[in-house]
Design brief:
single chain, alpha/beta, six-stranded mixed beta sheet, 3 helices
Length: 116
């Protein structure tokens, strides 16, 4: 992605509903997705677990996909592992460089709409 197309925030969700459970060779995986504010897919990841380590790995992967910028805001569902990982990302950043975390229900509808 070119820097000129970079967004100022992206939406991330790791949803655990029927449509986000993916079975591969009989095993269940969680589908994590990141999209920008225009609804364009940034990255996705399948993990066997939904915990802070999986969230950290996904955030690192999504950030590497869009190296041109750091998001100003990340909108997630209510998964608790995101708050911990975003706080780690903010550690050492000044108040102007902090990533704002919004975890309100239904605000990640860009992700919800992608899977319909």
């Amino acid at each position: 992605m070119a820097c000129a197309l970079a967004a100022d925030h992206f939406v991330i969700a790791a949803r655990v509903r029927d449509e986000t459970h993916v079975r591969v060779n009989g095993r269940r995986y969680y589908l994590w997705q990141a999209v920008d504010q225009r609804g364009q897919l940034i990255d996705f990841r399948l993990t066997a677990r939904r915990n802070a380590n999986a969230a950290r790995a996904f955030m690192r992967q999504a950030s590497e996909s869009v190296r041109c910028y750091q998001p100003m805001t990340i909108v997630t569902n209510k998964t608790h592992s995101y708050a911990k990982v975003i706080e780690e990302l903010n550690f050492g950043n000044g108040p102007d460089d902090r990533i704002r975390h919004v975890d309100r229900k239904y605000l990640n509808n860009r992700i919800e709409a992608r899977s319909c």
